UniProtKB/TrEMBL annotation:
Keywords carried by this UniProt record: FAD, Flavoprotein, Oxidoreductase
Domain Glucose-methanol-choline oxidoreductase N-terminal: 224-333
Protein family membership: Belongs to the GMC oxidoreductase family.
Keyword Flavoprotein part of the UniProt annotation: yes
Name of the protein: GMC family oxidoreductase
Bilayer-crossing regions: none
Ranges where the Glucose-methanol-choline oxidoreductase C-terminal domain occurs: 437-556
Length: 574
């Protein structure tokens, strides 16, 4: 029997970027908030002098314990789903700050095209351009409506970037980034020269790694990036990489109105009469169960956590791929990687062991609908970039194709090419299909005895054609950089959950203006429970050719505004 606690006004489930932003905005407005985080507490002090690649990059110190909580996977409904028992395709964060602690800091606003993708596709190419089975839909919000919330995230995080970029390749900005772009390294300059020679429009990647010291509107001061290369899978010991524990969470805590409970694993939302009444959670160290009544419940977790909680709580209608009805679990999308070209430079060397998570240059000439798709067998596209993340030595040991995997020749080639390789890669979009979805696994359970979340997904012809086309563009760029030898990856087949590809999972509780195909409205308020807000990348109706964090952050600020409106007047916000 769960111990019932005194009722609170607002409970937030998950304290990563979304939970931190919402907690900061609500507490600044004078509201008391209880934040439930299933992992442990974290702060910058935890990472002092801990450049430990083995511990963090290889043994996943900051990630979820898969022996206690994981997902199951299958390609289609005919296959048996099996649990992911070791990390591969994507990484799920754990602890205060969530995935916001171990992200790279690459920051991209989604394109205006993304938010009205179905309408704009049909208007330009006709409805037959959308292939059978692709359940493309608009988001119920426009870029212009969301733009002010992008600005809020950028000013809070201190986003570094170029102020003048071809607006065809990036939506209009009402306010410039608060700090200038990162440094241009020799490899970036080479990419810039090559892309310009091909008639493209390169720009420095926008970055949550500070290019200079910065104090944000809340008075949070942080120092500039040291280019140490320990960003992805690591917490930043300098606080130069924006993450919730050094930006929004301290602001909320300083108000005295945020109560953080760590090791609080929420297992279900309680509800009655079309409204949530609170949540139930388990204290992980003791196994004790608590019921926390609340007036407003905010789900602010990773995609899988949000969707699993809704399904487990029987809140919202589960998606049925056979009939196409229901909404919770619908529109699961991933990120299409695999199109890339690597250059081997026998006569040049680059200091690629220095870098930062968002140090790079990119082009959007082949992203969104920035190019003509009339004769192409795919929609959307991807961001093409050369990034200098810092080639940590355990994770990176690159040799040309045909090199033996061990022995004297392997060692010789490894040493020779250690600083002589560069890569141009693509981060491709992922479109929703009727048979790609999430539901509860009927067999496998987590450590608490609850069903695991199951993913049904595979690459489609859309994805294979996208990779084939964009890989050719990466080859053109790399060859313009004049390496001694170029190797191009130009094909993907069946999706595999084993090799790491991207942590950018989206969908499952998507936003829109039609309750029959969306879980939440454009304030991320549930259609089926007006006092529940489901915030995060779970709201994405598809995944763009970008990292999702900028759009997650903007939607979190909009949701916070919606929650404040709801607290004032109640009812549906649209």
């Amino acid at each position: 029997m769960a111990t019932k606690l005194p009722k609170v006004p607002i409970v937030v489930v998950g304290l990563g970027w979304v939970g931190g932003i919402i907690a900061a905005e609500l507490t600044k407005a004078g509201h008391k908030v209880v934040g439930l985080e299933r992992g442990k507490s974290r702060s910058t002090e935890d990472y002092f002098h801990v450049h430990d690649e083995l511990r963090y990059a290889q043994r996943y110190e900051l990630m979820q314990d898969l022996s206690k909580e994981t997902i199951t996977f299958r390609h289609n409904e005919k296959e048996r789903s099996l649990p992911m028992r070791s990390y591969g395709s994507f990484l799920m964060g754990d602890g205060l700050g969530g995935a916001g602690v171990h992200w790279n800091g690459q920051y991209f606003r989604f394109l205006p095209y993304d938010f009205q993708i179905k309408t704009k596709t049909v208007e330009k190419y006709g409805k037959n351009k959308i292939p059978e089975g692709m359940i493309l839909q608009d988001w119920g919000i426009t870029y212009d409506e969301l733009e002010p919330y992008f600005v809020k995230f950028e000013q809070m995080a201190g986003i570094s970037g170029e102020q003048t970029v071809n607006e065809k390749h990036r939506g209009p900005m009402s306010k410039p980034f608060p700090t200038g772009p990162m440094k241009k390294t020799p490899s970036i300059l080479l990419f810039e020269e090559a892309t310009k020679s091909l008639g493209y429009s390169p720009y420095m990647m926008s970055s949550a790694n500070l290019s200079e010291d910065y104090t944000n509107p809340d008075g949070i001061a942080r120092g500039a990036c040291q280019y140490c290369s320990f960003c992805e899978r690591f917490g930043c010991e300098y606080g130069a990489k924006a993450d919730p524990t050094v930006t929004v969470l301290p602001v909320a805590q300083n108000t005295g109105k945020l109560e953080i409970r760590t090791f609080a694993n929420v297992t279900r939302i309680t509800h009655s009469g079309g409204k949530a009444t609170g949540v139930v959670y388990v204290n992980s160290p003791t196994g004790e169960e608590y019921e926390q009544p609340a007036d407003v419940v905010i789900l602010a977790g990773f995609v899988f956590s949000n969707v699993k909680l809704l399904l487990q709580s029987k809140l919202g209608k589960p998606y049925d791929p056979k009939t196409g009805t229901g909404v919770v679990g619908r529109n699961y999308c991933y990120q299409v990687m695999g199109a890339s070209s690597r250059g081997f430079f026998d006569e040049k060397q680059f200091n690629t062991y220095m870098g930062a998570g968002a140090l790079g240059m990119c082009i959007d000439d082949f992203n969104g609908d920035n190019f003509d798709h009339s004769d192409l067998k795919f929609l959307h596209g991807g961001n093409i970039a050369l990034s200098q993340l810092g080639m940590r030595p355990i994770q990176n040991n690159i040799t040309p194709a045909g090199t033996p995997a061990w022995g004297a020749e392997f060692k010789k080639q490894s040493l020779f090419y250690a600083n002589r390789t560069l890569s141009v890669g693509v981060q491709g979009s992922s479109m929703p299909f009727r048979h790609h979805y999430m539901d509860l696994d009927p067999v496998y359970k987590d450590a608490l005895g609850n069903p695991l979340l199951r993913i049904t997904f595979d690459f489609e012809e859309q994805d294979r054609e996208l990779v084939k086309y964009l890989s050719g563009k990466t080859k053109d760029i790399m060859e313009a950089m004049k390496p001694t030898k170029t190797e191009t990856s130009s094909e993907i087949k069946t999706y595999s959950i084993v090799p790491y590809q991207s942590t950018h999972n989206t969908g499952g509780a998507v936003m829109g203006d039609d309750p029959s195909i969306s879980t939440v409205n454009n304030y991320l308020q549930m259609w089926d429970a007006e006092n529940v807000f489901v915030v995060g990348a779970s709201a994405f109706a598809h995944n763009s050719g970008y990292n999702p964090t900028a759009t997650v952050g903007a939607l979190a600020y909009r949701a916070a505004e919606g929650i404040l409106k709801y607290l004032e007047k109640g009812g549906s916000l649209v």
